[in-house]
């Protein structure tokens, strides 16, 4: 398969895997840590208004969803990529970071959560995903030691 096509496919699949992990953890979090009485997250307006009702426990799964979704997406993309694995993984992290910034602009939230989420959940996790992919990717025949 052409390297460019393989890299584009890696980016698409990495984004899809990261999104699935993200959505899954957000939904799991709402099942495990119930929303406080009066919180309505069915609309953006409701989410904005509900922010003041949420406890720190309500932010654990969103953080995990953002961090682990980015990690899974970056790892998958870097593992599948034919070249530029680190750049592709960081690109996945930047894409998810843009989504995180958009959510902050639309919904707000406590400063401690916004800072930790934007600084720790995206770019560090995409870098880690690339490192893990490099360590687990099988060697090509050219990379094997002939001795």
Automatic annotation (TrEMBL):
Keywords from the named record: Membrane, Transmembrane, Transmembrane helix
Taxonomically, the superkingdom here is: Bacteria
In its keyword annotation, does this UniProt entry include Membrane? Answer: yes
Q: Which residues cross the membrane?
A: 7-33, 53-75, 87-105, 111-133
Task: Please state what the protein is called.
Answer: Uncharacterized protein
